[in-house]
Amino acid sequence: MSKNHETEHPKKAFGWAARDSSGVLSPFNFSRRATGDNDVALKILYCGICHSDLHAIKNEWGNSVYPIVPGHEIVGVVTEVGPKVKKFKVGDKVGVGCLVGACTNSNSCHSCKDGFENYCPEMILTYNALYHDGTITYGGYSDWLVVEDRFAVRFPDSVPMDKGAPLLCAGITVYAPLKYFNLNEPGKHIGIVGLGGLGHVAVKFAKAFGAKVTVISTSPSKEEEAIEHVGADEFLVSKNAEQMQAAMGTMDGIIDTVSAVHLLLPLISLLKSNGKLILVGAPEKPLELPVFPLIMGGRVIAGSCIGGMKDTQEMIDFAAEHNITAEVEVIKMDYVNTAMERLAKNDVRYRFVIDVAGTIKA
């Protein structure tokens, strides 16, 4: 028999949860664990809305466990620290992204040992996952959070907390592949597929690394926005055969942020020999993989999933140094269902962020 959500832990909490695959969110009383020796507790100030949240509340990936309190782009202020915590103190600004746990033996886990907790076989997600104690994790659409200090990052004072929150998912999702596939070198030509929550941040990071950046989109109407506002150098309409033909073989790498089913062949054709196409979007159905152009061009297709904690801290510090933030629309908590409807229609520029502390009401 399952425990009562309000009493399975000693500390009361309040948030908004989805109860079924309708995805409708509503007020939810639950509980969180007491602050442990290596934990930090934080009052949540802002939480970004990721497209993954929409997938999860509607069970579109088939792994949802209800009730779900979504949210993994969390920023707040530390309210309590465990006795063994040296990294943070009460009053510090902190961020929590997609991870709140991994294996407990980092000496034997190659991923954790190398700083890639995001690839640990026992990785624990911030919500809709089983924690070490056997209870379900609840995310940032809530008033407070307790997390092991290893999975929190110091949030720079110079980064606005509302505009910085999405970097904890969207930012690290694009920063890590740029770094690890050597696409962060000045002078590289980088393509960014899609100008949404991930894509617009990818443009900013690639430009900060000194790259020439081309946005690739199905929407001609986004050209002015991509170049004049976000900072891209060029814009390609993927449905325009002449434009795509002219750009063939010109790019060192492409970050593909699209989470809908789409053709890979036109993108592969844009790559130089030994070019790299990195997928960070997660379509619900398999994509068709054309092998011949990979073989003939020595090209690579790879995937990348968020990043480890060391890289997440490095990313947010890099963002602070280069004034990189997300373009956001700040909303009240009780607007969240409307926001999800709009997100499903791509009607947001480019990330919703919930003013949790200012608008959540128990």
TrEMBL record:
Ranges where the Enoyl reductase (ER) domain occurs: 23-354
First-level EC class: oxidoreductase
Pfam families: ADH_N, ADH_zinc_N
Catalytic activity, EC: 1.1.1.195
UniProt key word Signal: no
Keywords from the UniProt entry: Lignin biosynthesis, Metal-binding, Oxidoreductase, Zinc
InterPro entries: ADH-like_C (IPR013149), ADH-like_N (IPR013154), ADH_Zn_CS (IPR002328), CAD-like (IPR047109), ER (IPR020843), GroES-like_sf (IPR011032), NAD(P)-bd_dom_sf (IPR036291)
Single GO molecular function: zinc ion binding
Source organism, top-level taxon: Eukaryota
Pathway note: Aromatic compound metabolism; phenylpropanoid biosynthesis
Cofactors that this protein relies on: Zn(2+)
Quaternary data: Homodimer.
Reactions catalysed, as given in the entry: (E)-caffeyl alcohol + NADP(+) = (E)-caffeyl aldehyde + NADPH + H(+); (E)-sinapyl alcohol + NADP(+) = (E)-sinapaldehyde + NADPH + H(+); (E)-coniferol + NADP(+) = (E)-coniferaldehyde + NADPH + H(+); (E)-4-coumaroyl alcohol + NADP(+) = (E)-4-coumaraldehyde + NADPH + H(+)
UniProt record, GO biological process: lignin biosynthetic process
Protein name as annotated: cinnamyl-alcohol dehydrogenase
Family, per entry: Belongs to the zinc-containing alcohol dehydrogenase family.
